[in-house]
Amino acid sequence: MLICLCRGLSERDLRGLVVAGLGSTEEISQSCGAGGDCGACLSTIDRLVDDVLSRAHAGGLVAVG
User: Fold this and answer.
1) Tens digit of pLDDT for each residue in 11-64?
2) Which residues contact 65 (CB under 8 A, 6 or more apart)?
3) Regarding beta strands 2-4 and 9-10, do their DSSP bridges make them parallel or antiparallel, or are they unpaired?
4) Which of 4, 8, 33, 52 is the most buried (most CB within 10 A)?
């Protein structure tokens, strides 16, 4: 599913960035531009980051970054 229509970035793309160590919406935006154009996806990215990080911590996994 596309999250950032302006940059054509999918949920999979963005989850991969969080797993790779980007731990905030701001870091993701600086890295790939998601959320930096129209901003409509920012709240979705916030929720996605929270979800990935909470799952990682619950499972004992911590992203290295």
Assistant:
1) 999 999 999 999 999 999 999 999 999 999 999 999 999 999 999 888 755 544
2) 20, 21, 22, 23
3) antiparallel
4) 4
20 lies in some domain:
yes
Q: Report which secondary-structure segment, H or E, holds 10.
A: strand 9-10
The domain spanning residue 12 has which CATH number? Answer: 1.10.10.1100
Amino acid letter for position 23: G
Number of domains in the chain: 1
Give domain status of residue 11, yes or no: yes
Structure tokens at 62: 């911590």
In a domain, 63, yes or no: no
Its domain, for residue 24, covers 2-58
Two structure tokens written together for 18: 């969080």
